[in-house]
Structures are given as structure tokens and as C-alpha cells.
Specification:
The protein has 440 residues and is α/β, with parallel strands linked by helices. It folds into three domains: 165 residues, Rossmann fold (3-Layer(aba) Sandwich), CATH 3.40.50.720; 163 residues, Dihydrodipicolinate Reductase, domain 2; 84 residues, Alpha-Beta Plaits. The strands form three sheets. It has a six-stranded parallel beta sheet with strand order 3-2-1-4-5-6, with helices on both faces. The chain has a six-stranded mixed beta sheet with strand order 8-10-9-7-11-12. Helix 14 packs antiparallel against helix 15. It is globular, with a radius of gyration of 27 Å. It starts with a helix and ends in a 5-residue tail after the last strand. The structure holds NADP nicotinamide-adenine-dinucleotide phosphate.
């Protein structure tokens, strides 16, 4: 009886089947095996809901017992143990979250607006009911920043937290910087490509980032803030000229969210700011997000990833569902295993020689005619193609460094060719071979 309880699946109700709901269902269906290897039991999608739920195409393998347009049916369903609110806004979303809590169900939400506005009160209601609230997806969809602040660096005392928390505005600033186009043109293009909403105010005037910063400030400093109290400026006035001047100062411009401890309180703001180009934050381009925290003890840590999108945000929702699913089975067997998976599979790495990569070969040689011919004939004998030959001018001909880059080739063949090359009489030292990781 006990074993049966330990291994029992956990049943989910998903309300909201748009971008995030769709991504969540896809991951739950397509990654079901990996998820159950980690949990030791399965997550079942028992009920789904949206205004147009009946006409939605669900992912293969997703066969809920209930498909409804009325969220109340999901919350009231006797088998549903955890409800995901993926609707958004502060109206019906609040009713769903509070309705689920009142029904004794734990809740996962991606809703920064609702949680930034009223999360603390909602959490009190959940705690009083003995259920849990999880909200990883609400800030920086693809970066597990809640888990980091809540657990990963909980032992530190955060002094400063910086964030690039809105992908749309970061995309617009990156485009202005790279192409010198003016703000209105870049915004129009971003809207055409679907990166910016028809009403872009929440993104470009800083309000979306403000809600996210309010949430991160709670997690980092234990502070409850009203988002409207945060000093907020948007990016509408940033022009190509600002980037030209910023460059002269060794800087770039970002919509920077910042919260820092000071004597007597916290400085909290969202506004465009100049950042030295050599900082890691300055290299965050396009629709990416980042958070940089500085602690009294652990110093600097940096987190980077996609800020939004069905799949990155879906991963955050599914990971929250997994965490809460463990908590509704409150036994030692359901704590997070230290190795992430309940059991590790005996594994040996594949032979590295089978790996295919582009390569960088650096030679030091005594120069004479025919060197490239000799090297390329060895490469050709191993079916390896040359990508480029690079040589800096005016170097010492008796110890001449030059480089050959190779097209994607199996490592074993490259190693064999390099060994052959090493025996050539003009080599001053063994060739240096390094893979080129272009996909990083
Ligand atoms: N999009 C992202 O990348 C992202 C990233 C991080 C966080 N979030 C947050 O995730 C949440 C969802 O965003 P989203 O982009 O997925 O929104 P979305 O694409 O607009 O989807 C919203 C869903 O909610 C459903 N819905 C609306 N009103 C409803 C009601 N009264 N009853 C039942 N269902 C209702 C809609 O139904 P229909 O489909 O039938 O109209 C739709 O399926 C928001 O809180 C957002 O801030 C989004």
C-alpha cells in the first residue's frame, strides 16, 4: 500500500493554452520519460482549459480526461492536485489562483503582473491552506533565477542585483546600436517580426521590467515593493547618437534594472543606463535576459538565457510542476535526488575520436617552398578538407607560426593526420590542434 502511494502519479490541471500553456503541454508530452526518470513517478495532464480549449490541437500523447472552457471545472476536479495558471493579467488569473488555493491545490503560475502586485498576500493564503505557490516562469522565462535566489545562493547576503529583464527592449537597443537605425523604425520592424506587441508600452516604457524587478527584489532582499513605487524610465528617447557617444566612453546602453542596498534601505530603478563594454552584462544582446548579483560573501554570479518563448518558459513551468509534485508526496523518497535523477544509468562516454568538429591547427615551421602542399596532401589522405590558411606577415622564417582551419572532420582522422604531420622535417614543434566550437 505504501509503495503504491509513493509511486503514484501526480495529476495536473493546466489553465491557459497560449504561448506558455502550449509550450508546457509540449514539454510534458515530449519529455515525459526524462521527467519520470527524475521524479520516480509520472505527471499526468488530467484537465486543460482555455476560452477556445475545445478547438485546440493538443500535442500527441496529451489526452486529458477534461477539456473545458470553464477554469472552475479544472480547479474543482477531484483528481487535479496541482493547477497551473498560464492565463496572465490580474483579473481572471487571480480568481484561478485563489480558487485553486481555496480548493486546497498547489499552484504554479507564470504571471509576473499578479505576483508582483499581490504575491505576498496570495502566498499567505496558500500557506494558511497548507499548499504551495511556485512562480519560476514569472521572471526571465528561461533563467532559473528564482531557484538561484531562493536556494542556490540563499546563504549569501545580496548587496546588488542588476538585470536586463525585458527582451523586447534589449532587442530594440541592440538593433539601434548595431544598425544605427532610429527608435521608431526599429520598433516598427520589431512589431512586424512579432518581437514587440501592437501596444508596446509595457516593454519599451519599462513596466514589464518593473514588475519583474519588484519580484526579484523580494527574492534577493526580502523586501515587498509596490511596482509603481519603483523609479521607471523607458527607452523611447534613446537615439543612435547616444550609442556613438557611449562608444567613445567605452560603454553601451541597456535598459538596466537595478536594486542595491544602501544605508537605510534599497535603491531600486528601471532605466536606460551606460554600462562599460568590458562588463559581461554589456554583451547581452537581442532578446536575451541576464541577472547579475553581487553578494557579501560569494561575490559576483551571473545568469543568462532566453527571457521568454513557449519552450524556455515552458521548461520553467514544468520544473515548478515537478517541484510541487514532489511536495504533494511529502516523503523522503520524493525529495530532490542529489543527482537530479532517481537512478543513474551506467554510462561510458563515447570515444572522443568519433566526435566531428571544425579544427584549428597551429604550426611552427622552418619555411621552405611546398609546405602547404605537403600538409594538404596528408589531410587529403585522411579525407579532411581545409577551410582556410592564415599567416601573419613579417614573421621569423625559421620559426614561422601559421594556421590551417579544417572543415568539420572526425577527431580520430584529425589526430592521425596531425601525428603524420609532426614527423615532417620542417616542423619546429608538434602541431597544436584545437576544436572550434562554433555553436556556442
Ligand atoms: N509568452 C511568454 O514568453 C511569457 C514568458 C514569461 C511569462 N509569461 C506569462 O505567462 C502568462 C501567459 O502568457 P502567454 O504568452 O502564454 O499568453 P497567451 O498566449 O495570450 O495565452 C493566454 C491563454 O489564456 C487563455 N485565457 C484567457 N482568458 C481565459 C479565461 N477567462 N478562461 C480560460 N482561459 C483563458 C487564452 O485562451 P484562448 O487561447 O482560448 O484565447 C490563452 O490560451 C502571462 O502571465 C505572461 O506574462 C509569458
Amino acid at each position: 500500500m505504501l509503495d503504491w502511494f509513493l509511486m503514484k502519479d501526480v495529476n495536473l490541471g493546466i489553465v491557459g493554452l497560449g504561448n506558455v500553456g502550449g509550450g508546457t503541454l509540449t514539454i510534458l508530452a515530449e519529455n515525459a520519460e526524462e521527467i519520470s526518470r527524475k521524479l520516480g513517478f509520472r505527471l499526468n495532464v488530467t484537465a486543460v482549459c482555455s476560452r477556445s480549449a475545445k478547438s485546440k490541437t493538443l500535442p500527441a500523447g496529451c489526452t486529458p480526461a477534461l477539456i473545458t472552457t470553464d477554469w472552475r471545472e479544472v480547479v474543482a476536479h477531484p483528481d487535479v492536485e496541482i493547477v497551473a495558471e498560464l492565463v496572465g493579467g490580474t483579473g481572471v488569473a487571480r480568481e484561478i489562483v485563489e480558487g485553486a488555493i481555496a480548493a486546497g491545490k498547489s499552484v504554479v503560475t507564470a504571471n509576473k503582473e499578479l505576483i508582483a502586485l499581490d504575491g505576498a498576500a496570495i502566498w499567505k493564503k496558500a500557506a494558511a491552506k497548507g499548499v504551495t505557490l511556485a512562480m519560476e516562469a514569472s521572471v526571465c522565462g528561461g533563467i532559473p533565477i528564482h531557484a538561484v535566489l531562493r536556494e542556490g545562493i540563499a546563504g549569501d547576503r545580496i548587496e546588488t542585483l542588476f538585470g536586463i529583464l525585458n527582451g523586447t527592449s534589449n532587442y530594440i537597443l541592440t538593433e539601434i546600436e548595431q544598425h544605427g537605425s532610429d527608435f521608431a523604425a526599429v520598433l516598427a520592424e520589431a512589431q512586424r517580426l512579432g518581437y514587440a506587441e501592437a501596444d508596446p508600452s509595457a516593454d519599451i516604457d519599462g513596466f514589464d521590467a518593473r514588475s519583474k524587478l519588484a519580484l526579484l527584489t523580494s527574492l534577493a532582499f526580502g523586501a515587498r515593493l509596490t511596482p509603481a513605487d519603483i523609479h521607471t524610465e523607458g527607452i523611447r528617447r534613446i537615439a543612435p547618437t547616444d550609442f556613438e557617444y557611449a562608444r567613445q566612453l567605452g560603454c553601451t546602453i541597456k535598459l538596466l534594472c537595478s536594486a542595491r542596498r544602501a544605508q537605510g534601505g534599497l535603491f531600486v530603478s528601471v532605466r536606460p543606463a551606460l554600462l562599460p563594454r568590458k562588463t559581461i552584462m554589456a554583451s547581452v544582446q537581442g532578446a536575451y535576459n541576464a541577472v547579475w548579483s553581487r553578494g557579501t560573501f560569494g561575490a559576483d554570479t551571473f545568469y543568462y538565457g532566453r527571457g521568454a518563448g513557449p519552450n524556455p518558459t515552458g521548461v520553467a513551468v514544468v520544473s515548478d510542476l515537478m517541484r510541487l509534485a514532489r511536495e504533494v508526496r511529502p516523503t523522503a523518497a520524493h525529495r530532490v535526488p542529489p543527482f537530479a535523477f532517481t537512478e543513474l544509468t551506467e554510462t561510458r562516454p563515447l570515444p572522443i575520436g568519433e566526435q566531428k568538429r571544425p579544427w584549428y591547427l597551429r604550426f611552427r615551421i622552418t619555411d621552405r617552398p611546398g609546405i602547404i602542399r605537403d600538409l594538404s596532401s596528408i589531410l587529403a589522405a585522411h579525407s579532411i578538407s581545409i577551410d582556410a590558411v592564415l599567416q601573419l606577415p613579417d614573421l621569423d622564417k625559421h620559426n614561422l607560426p601559421f594556421v590551417i582551419t579544417l572543415e568539420t572532420s572526425p577527431e580520430a582522422a584529425v589526430r592521425q593526420a596531425v601525428e603524420k604531420m609532426n614527423s615532417l622535417e620542417f616542423m619546429v614543434e608538434p602541431p597544436l590542434a584545437m576544436p572550434i566550437e562554433r555553436g556556442i
